[in-house]
Amino acid sequence: MFILIGFVALLLYAALVFYIGWRGMSWIKLWTSSRRFSYLYIVVLAVVASSFLLGQLSSNHRILGMISAYWLAIFYLLLILVPLARVTVWLLRYTQLPHDRTRLWTGVVTLVLVVFLLAYGSYQAYSPVVRSYEVHIPKQASSLSSLKVVMAADMHFGVLSGKDHAARLVREVNALEPDIVLFPGDLFDDDIEPYKDQGIDRLLAQIEAPYGVYATLGNHDKYDGTMEELIELLERSGMRVLYDEAVTVDDTFTLIGRKDRSDPNRVALSYLMEGVNHSKPVILLDHQPYELGIAQYDGVDLMVSGHTHRGQVFPGNLITDAIYENDWGYLQKEQLHSIVTSGFGFWGPPIRLGTRSEVVEIDVTFEAETEG
Questions:
Q1: How far apart are CA 151 and CA 338, in angstroms?
Q2: How many CB atoms lie within 10 A of CB 227?
Q3: In the 8-state DSSP scheme, what is residue 142?
Q4: Would you call 158 exposed, middle or buried from its count of C-beta atoms within 10 A (0-12, 13-18, 19+)?
Q5: HSE of 102 in the Cβ direction (CA atoms, 13 Å)?
Q6: Tens-binned pLDDT, residue by residue, of the chain (372 aa)
Q7: Angle at the Cα of 171 from the Cα atoms of 170 and 174, rounded to 5 degrees
Q8: Which of 43, 167, 232, 239 is deepest in the core (most CB within 10 A)?
Q9: By C-alpha distance, which of 173, 75, 163, 162 is closest to 128?
């Protein structure tokens, strides 16, 4: 069944590439009748389109990975814009404008839009903003009256989201002067080698937070070796990985980090909550924002998640909004505060349209300590 699905997907991809290529060839013929140029166009398109498939087989090849990622971005934009261009040409046939000239300039506008949206989408992906939320938890946390939490997820550190983006994350986080930093999953992009080769572990070790840096793993945090080795690599970055664990921080609040929902060995949240002091604040890191009702029922006060990317590119946000109770931003369910980030990085095409790379700042206040 898996092979059949893969074969059908391959045929669909080939059909879409053929459609884009055919429309492009029709437009090129309005400019030139040179066969050499047409052959060159076909060869370049075939090579670039194949880079996506070859990139899946050779994830360690940096140049191939870059070509594949940017091709995906261009391919996505063309799939949206080319049909719109065809509709435009069809409608303009009912005007007095020359048909060939209409096709020519519609193609030019389409090309300009691709370049503009590629540049704008790259800016949205690589220029994070800070989203701020205020949360009140009516519990005592010893002498602690407030806590500044800085959270980021879905960095997908790899070929394109590399050391420069990691350095940007460190600057953004440290500028907010956090008390604690939380990374709820997808620090890697299915491969840890770029993370090691670019020294991203040493960069992240520069994050400063009095209560430390904590992380959980996401569905893209994978490694051919053991999970212990992967966790050890992350903890060399100065963070503690909570892998279906609960820990009390400085006897003031409890942090719980869950394995990803895709992990068959993930235990129930109720099991992790056993022995947790419910009179103190409970903060949960869970990569995928599912089961908010369960977290609320089990007594979690604040749940931070990522995974959705808020769809990353329009109209993906409409899909994530339909799938998740909270696909981005803030939602409260009785005592539970759910905050989902759109992510600091990206997955696949290095663009964001309709979304923005972000770091989340959460100002948490607690019930004032009673005197007696």
A1: 13
A2: 16
A3: T
A4: buried
A5: 15
A6: 778 887 888 899 999 999 999 999 988 888 888 888 888 989 989 988 888 777 665 555 677 778 888 999 999 999 999 999 999 988 888 887 888 888 889 999 999 999 999 999 999 999 999 999 999 999 988 778 999 999 999 999 988 888 999 999 999 999 999 999 999 999 998 888 888 889 999 999 999 999 999 999 999 998 777 888 899 989 999 999 999 999 999 989 999 999 999 999 999 999 999 989 999 999 999 999 999 999 999 999 999 999 999 999 999 999 999 999 999 999 999 999 999 999 999 998 999 999 999 999 999 999 854 444
A7: 80
A8: 239
A9: 173
Helix (H) / strand (E) containing 70 = helix 62-92
186 burial (CB, 10 Å; 0-12 / 13-18 / 19+) is buried
Q: Which residues partner with 132 through β-bridges?
A: 361
**How much is the pTM?**
0.90
- Which has the closest alpha carbon to 348: 190, 230, 240, 234? 190
The Cα-based distances of 29 to 33, 35, 36, 42, 117 in angstroms read 6, 10, 12, 13, 25
- Tokens at residue 256, please? 């719980």
